[in-house]
């Protein structure tokens, strides 16, 4: 496989919407007569009471500053779990060395670019599952991908593209079973290296991508470096992870 092409693209949402932490409701301390109550504090409502009146819970404000400026494409809602299916990529030291060269060069064009904390290749969009659907959904995925062989990926897939299309087809069939959004038509499979808030597609394409591609092509052993075994498929639903090994 030749050194994988670099691509710049924009997205309307964040794949890591699937991140979920403990939901915090505003609390309060009692105040004595004559004292002014704190403006944003309220008594918390017990879960047992909220469960009696579904749909009446106050939703916490989604502060994008806590997510590096990223904005969720759908809000938090009690009982809903953001879910994403992907192939994880375990970055070796040589890969990170290459990224240490690529990112500063790209930041000369788009200074707000931020390095990804983890690397993966998406097989689905981020979708919403009800909690009681999670285990049946994961089992359906396991049944669909049980017979797939491992293959190779690069920054943008230049070999194994057909196998990944087959994988997406099986994941899409599970999505359809649960009446969820399927993957993109004619997808380009890639591993994201960095991200930024806003659409910087025009700043990255052209001269910037050509220069970055030259860096990749000249990097020692780049053809071997940018190959990796896809050994498993992973599903992240809220804060839960499920792995499905590939043969």
From TrEMBL:
Its main location: nucleus. It comes from the Eukaryota. It is found in: Nucleus. Residues 56-66 have a biased composition (Basic and acidic residues). It catalyses: a 3'-end uridylyl-uridine-RNA = a 3'-end 2',3'-cyclophospho-uridine-RNA + uridine; a 3'-end uridylyl-adenosine-RNA = a 3'-end 2',3'-cyclophospho-uridine-RNA + adenosine. It is an enzyme of class 3 (hydrolase). Belongs to the 2H phosphoesterase superfamily. USB1 family. The gene is USB1. InterPro entries: Usb1. GO terms for biological process: U6 snRNA 3'-end processing. The active site is at residues 120, 190. GO terms for molecular function: lyase activity; poly(U)-specific exoribonuclease activity, producing 3' uridine cyclic phosphate ends. Interacts with PLRG1, CDC5L and PRPF19. Keywords: Hydrolase, Lyase, Nuclease, Nucleus. It comes from Phocoena sinus. One of its GO terms (cellular component) is nucleus. Phosphodiesterase responsible for the U6 snRNA 3' end processing. Acts as an exoribonuclease (RNase) responsible for trimming the poly(U) tract of the last nucleotides in the pre-U6 snRNA molecule, leading to the formation of mature U6 snRNA 3' end-terminated with a 2',3'-cyclic phosphate. Residues 1-70 are annotated as: Disordered. Its EC number is 3.1.4.-. This is U6 snRNA phosphodiesterase.
């Amino acid at each position: 496989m030749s050194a994988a092409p670099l691509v710049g693209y924009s997205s309307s949402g964040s794949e890591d919407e699937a991140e979920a932490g403990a939901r915090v409701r505003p609390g309060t301390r009692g105040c004595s007569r004559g004292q002014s109550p704190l403006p944003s504090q309220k008594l918390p409502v017990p879960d047992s009471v909220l469960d009696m009146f579904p749909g009446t819970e106050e939703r916490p404000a989604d502060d994008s500053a806590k997510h590096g400026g990223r904005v969720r494409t759908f809000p938090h809602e009690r009982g809903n779990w953001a879910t994403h299916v992907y192939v994880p990529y375990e970055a070796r030291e040589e890969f990170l060395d290459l990224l240490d060269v690529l990112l500063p060069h790209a930041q000369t064009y788009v200074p707000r670019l931020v390095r990804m904390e983890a690397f993966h290749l998406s097989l689905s969009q981020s979708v919403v599952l009800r909690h009681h659907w999670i285990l049946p959904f994961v089992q359906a995925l396991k049944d669909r991908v049980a017979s797939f062989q491992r293959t190779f990926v690069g920054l943008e897939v230049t070999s194994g593209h057909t196998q990944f299309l087959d994988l997406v087809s099986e994941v899409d069939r599970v999505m359809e079973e649960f009446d969820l959004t399927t993957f993109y038509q004619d997808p380009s499979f890639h591993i994201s290296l960095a991200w930024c808030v806003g659409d910087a597609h025009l700043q990255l394409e052209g001269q910037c991508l050509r220069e970055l591609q030259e860096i990749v092509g000249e990097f020692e052993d780049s053809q071997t470096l940018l190959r990796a075994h896809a050994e498993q498929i992973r599903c992240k639903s809220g804060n839960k992870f499920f792995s499905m090994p590939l043969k």
